[in-house]
Design brief:
Layout lengths: L15 E2 L9 E6 L1 E2 L12 E7 L11 H10 L1 E5 L4 E3 L7 E7 L2 E6 L5 E7 L4 E2 L1 H6 L6 E4 L3 E7 H10 L1 H25 L4 H12 L10 E3 L4 H8 L3 H13 L3 E4 L2 E4 L2 H9 L1
Parallel strand pairs: 3-5
Antiparallel strand pairs: 1-4, 2-4, 5-12, 6-11, 7-10, 7-12, 8-9, 8-11, 13-15, 14-15
């Protein structure tokens, strides 16, 4: 950690606090937090940060028994990445299961001609890198930081233990993998759409979600126009023009880092038409 740099803010949705007390089993007290491009030295006072991550706030770990939680607490490590840093590199060894604690990440693949294609976005609480952990293969895609992020890393051996010994983790992982297969299928179908505007309509329709406190469906943590363009293989200008048209038609409304779908039926009709 750079001398004089303040301790990082509490991860969004995963409350953290710095103090000198001994953490309970469901929290992990991290005494070293180093940027990914700098070596971590526990004896360097400039790198020592007392950061408590509440492990039960991470959905996959929420229902662990005390014994497994103690093992996770002992093994988990935290890394900090800057915007545009590569968090996972395609082809690297899958030696850990990762959790996004704060910030935003994008899963990407690189085509043979060098173009970066976005596959999906990751939000705080999400885990990733599970395929390489499960089957011992190399990483099948890269993950890049769209902002400054905090990431927790759980060693492969500990993750595999949870997969085989914790019913709650196993059930969540099965549901996640089933949803991932369905989502990847929908995304492949989206990329096969030749009309770029319809591709954008379909993309928004896939991303929208309905929350109890919202009257309308929303797209949270809206990617930048350039990131959307990369994800669906079009230009930033086309994305900007299409979203502006939807705003003018009263179908969507832009909020702070979110998109509000005012007329979901109209958007769905455009996507299907």
């Amino acid at each position: 950690m750079t001398p004089g740099k303040p301790a990082p803010a509490a991860p969004a949705g995963l409350p953290a606090q710095a103090d000198g007390t001994a953490p309970p089993a469901e929290t992990s007290k991290i005494t070293t937090l180093s940027p990914a491009n700098e070596p971590s030295d526990p004896n360097d006072p400039n790198q020592q940060v007392n950061l408590q991550i509440h492990l039960r706030k991470i959905p996959l770990l929420a229902d662990l028994n005390e014994q497994d939680m103690l093992r996770v607490r002992a093994d988990i490590r935290i890394k900090q990445y800057n915007k545009r840093d590569v968090v996972l590199q395609k082809g690297a060894t899958g030696d850990s299961l990762l959790f996004l604690l704060s910030g935003q990440l994008q899963v990407i693949d690189v085509t043979e001609d060098g173009r970066a294609i976005g596959l999906r976005m990751l939000a705080p609480g999400d885990f990733f890198g599970e395929i390489a952990v499960i089957n011992g293969s190399m990483r099948s895609a890269s993950v890049v930081a769209l902002s400054s992020v905090l990431v927790a890393l759980l060693p492969r051996a500990t993750a595999l233990h949870l997969f085989s010994h914790s019913p709650s983790v196993a059930n969540q992982m099965l549901r996640f993998l089933a949803e991932k297969v369905q989502r990847d299928s929908e995304f492949r179908a989206l990329l096969s759409i030749h009309n770029t505007s319809k591709r954008i309509y379909t993309f928004l329709d896939l991303l929208k979600e309905t929350k109890p406190d919202d009257d309308n469906p929303v797209v949270e943590n809206l990617p930048t126009h350039q990131d959307i363009a990369n994800m669906i293989n079009t230009s930033r200008e086309t994305v900007t023009r299409t979203l502006l048209t939807l705003v003018q038609q009263g179908i969507i409304k832009k909020g702070t880092h979110r998109l509000i779908i005012i007329k979901p039926e109209a958007l769905q009709k455009l996507a299907q038409g």
